[in-house]
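S1.2 Input.
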Amino acid sequence: MALAVWCGIVPTAALAHDAAQHDATTHVVRPARSELATAVAFGPDGQLYAVSKEGGHLLLSRSADDGASWSTPQRVNAEPEAIAADGDSQPRIAFTRGGDLLVSWTRPLPRPYTGEIRLARRERGADAFDVPITVHRDRAEITHRFQNLVVDAADRVTVLWIDKRDQEAARARKQPYRGAAIYAAVSGDGGRSFAPEQRVADYSCECCRIALTLDRDGAPLALWRHVFAPNERDHALARLRPDGTPETVTRATFDHWKVDACPHQGPSLVVAPDGTRHAVWFNQRDGEGRVFYGRLAPNGVDGQMPVGGPRAAHADIASAAGALAIVWKEFDGEQTRLRALHSTDGGRHFTPLELAASTGNTDQPRAIVRGARLFAFWRQADAGFKLYPLP
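S1.3 Output.
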């Protein structure tokens, strides 16, 4: 399975079939740009916060009744601008310990596949967001895309993204360079400003989302699709220092998928209270493209197993109060279904759950947490924002 492509054309099994145009001759899928990508999380006040795109604005909506009703949307960016909000290019939200709300997104630039990482902050109790800032110092018209952010216990804000400055530099020297790179920037003042960015790792995949969470001791922990020599698209795991530099970068998955293409399916990662690193990811293994679950160990993956059927896509994972939930969407030939797995024994056994179905365009599902409760969130073009309680 060798496709000489990257962003825009991907292996068929890599995407759910809804919102896509299928070319039966070449066996590839071009994902439709439905721009339904929505960031969602429960805030410190227990309300559900969702950020979605409308025209040149991101809109913040709140629900105090678990999604039964929503507030009047508030603009995140007062001045309109280009915003990426489809597939793995998603807005992101996070909260500081004091309750300030942070929203990050990618602003596309005129050249294809280029962009810059933006962030807006709203102080707790404020009526409006501050003017958005660009997180990185590098302002070249190149790829800075697919961002994610996390806030640690010291209120440091760490933003990661995919960056092509090193690929561009290698090209100018007429030297080879695999894929892109992962960069990070850290804010010590709650997202008001950022220190100069730091390179985390060379040779990342170009178009897959980055998973970002906190390790058991509070250090940022990132998981992304990596291009291991010569062209294996497995995943790398990095533990970051407070300044955003990597403490360690290790190989996390070992499926040995040899392909010159980007599947547009990034991983998801959660760290349980006992320190176990649970992950879900898409890869091809033994000739079959699948979503997998596994516990990331120092030299391998424990308990690796397929998630759903061969059309499962865009899985997410979360844990709370000793329970673990995996959510994903899967096309059954007629509808796109929202499905879940639930575990109470650390991922050794799972109970399957059927949650919803849609015949229209849908966003990637999210697994989210409030206290000891787990939920699935799914935006559907024909039904809007929907929240599904899990066991």
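S1.4 Remarks. The radius of gyration is 19 Å.
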